[in-house]
Input
Amino acid sequence: MLESGSTNAINSILFILRSVVLMITPQIIRSNRKTLSLSINENADLVVRAPHRASYDEIQKFISEKSTWINNKQRLIKAQLEDNENQHSRSQCLYLGSLYPLKIDNNSVEPISFNGQMFTINNESRETISLLLKSWYKKRFMEVALPRLSYFSDKYNLKVNQVRVKEQKTLWGSCSSKNNINLNYLLIMAPMKVIDYVIVHELVHT
Output
């Protein structure tokens, strides 16, 4: 007769073997709960929550009964994971008229960086990525466009009162009757000759 410890060990091995045959390797979380439950986590892994008293056979039977639901749910989440990965690999950012790949690197020290060939962001959230890009675009536009505006205004002896850089939905630039110029920083996505054109166009109105 096998001792209790040996019996439990054999049952554990049999449970693992059955799981492998079914291509289902669950994570089992035991607690003081009274019933069995299944869930699929964000990585498409099967998680089983079971009472302390539940045997491996009971758990395996429960998994077998829910195998269709498990497979469907795992396929759905795996498809979503693959789609997210493909979207990240396809992601590109416009900068000065050229498209550059966007890489997600959670280990990157800088929230956003550009090395001349690729953008790197250390966050996977789409909202955060959008905010980081807009902040970077605005800063870079000011570095690129303001010296150009000074160059053209000095060259043609045109007086500018204030320059405001902001995102605008319908305009690339505008000039008020007080010679205040507004420039849309999303112009940084356009080629340099387009930025120069918009700047000169608004200076003409001063």
Summary: The CA atoms of residues 69 and 147 lie 61 Å apart.
